[in-house]
Amino acid sequence: MTDTTVAAYAAATPKAPLEKTVITRRELRAHDILIEIKYSGICHSDIHQVNGDWGDGIFPMVPGHEIAGLVSAVGPGVTRYAVGDRVGVGCFVDSCRTCENCVAGQEQYCTGGGMTATYNATDRDGEPTLGGYSTHLVVDENYAVTIPEALALDVAAPLLCAGITLYSPLRHWGAGPGKRVAVVGLGGLGHLGVKIAHALGAEVTVLGRTPAKRPDALRLGADAYHATGDPATFEQLAGRFDLIVNTVSATLDLEAYLGLLRTDGTFVQVGIPDQPMVVSPFALVNGRKALAGSMIGGIRETQEMLDFCAEHGIGSEIEVIAARQINEAYARVLASDVRYRFVIDAATI
Ligand SMILES: [Zn+2]
Ligand SMILES: [Zn+2]
């Protein structure tokens, strides 16, 4: 088999609408698998990268790092997967494999040149990486994960970025029985945080800007919902939480939120605002509070997350779209008009 030409949706230049095109996927190397993509989630970060919000991107850009599909061919050295297997690919497709973090299964924090992002990055062979808004993907078997039979591929796709982004900090900071967890923001990330934290056995509170999403939050498994637009919320919930996970990518009043932590509580940032946030050290020292961040998760932990979600019946709430609706979907994501993740049906590409 040689390089293959496959269909994809790409932005030709920064801010350009996504249009149908053809791209090349590399010939299978010894440990590569070819994936026939079935579904690809739309992550808010796709829009940031297409728009060049996070610096110069590599164009033409094929976004997509919430990929679910079936193995359709394997290289001669592949041992982990066979043709027909249900697999997923998340935010990265390679890393150095030898640094302390890679060895520990935390490839997302690779110190040997950083993880190789699934798109908008330069692969270790010098070629640009192209993501999941496509019919096929070639990836090293060590950077794919198994999607359990119990999870439908469409609702599983967003777990590969949004799901692991919440699962990893919830596990790391011990969300579970007896712990009070707050999820700030009920969007693509937050709604999965609620489901996962609830399944882990924690008491879950959603902090949303307005009361609008209260019914959804409770339906998804939250025990309580409070509107942060109401100043009384911050008095009422003072000192309440062991863990707050902030999924919002706009700046907020950090000190007000730190006031909601109990002693030894942790505030974890997973959303990425484009402006710095200010915090007084007093807000941390009084109560031995921690301000932390977390970025996706490693391959082993992503597999653990998928197995956990399968066991607990957790998938993303999705709206499946045809590829020709991608640009419209982007506009709706920016308007927060999605409950809670768009997923592209790759058969329409
Ligand atoms: Zn993402
Ligand atoms: Zn590494």
Automatic annotation (TrEMBL):
Q: What class of enzyme is it?
A: oxidoreductase
Record's InterPro entries? ADH-like_C, ADH-like_N, ADH_Zn_CS, CAD-like, ER, GroES-like_sf, NAD(P)-bd_dom_sf
Q: Give the protein's recorded name.
A: alcohol dehydrogenase (NADP(+))
What does the record give as cofactor? Zn(2+)
Q: Which family does it belong to?
A: Belongs to the zinc-containing alcohol dehydrogenase family.
Q: Which UniProt keywords apply?
A: Metal-binding, Oxidoreductase, Zinc
- Classification via PROSITE patterns: ADH_ZINC
User: Which branch of life, at top level?
Assistant: Bacteria
Its catalytic activity? a primary alcohol + NADP(+) = an aldehyde + NADPH + H(+)
Q: Cross-referenced Pfam families, in alphabetical order? A: ADH_N, ADH_zinc_N
Q: Give the source lineage, highest ranks first.
A: Bacteria, Bacillati, Actinomycetota, Actinomycetes, Kitasatosporales
State its Enzyme Commission number(s).
1.1.1.2
Q: Which residues form the Enoyl reductase (ER) domain?
A: 16-344
Q: Which SMART domains match?
A: PKS_ER (SM00829)
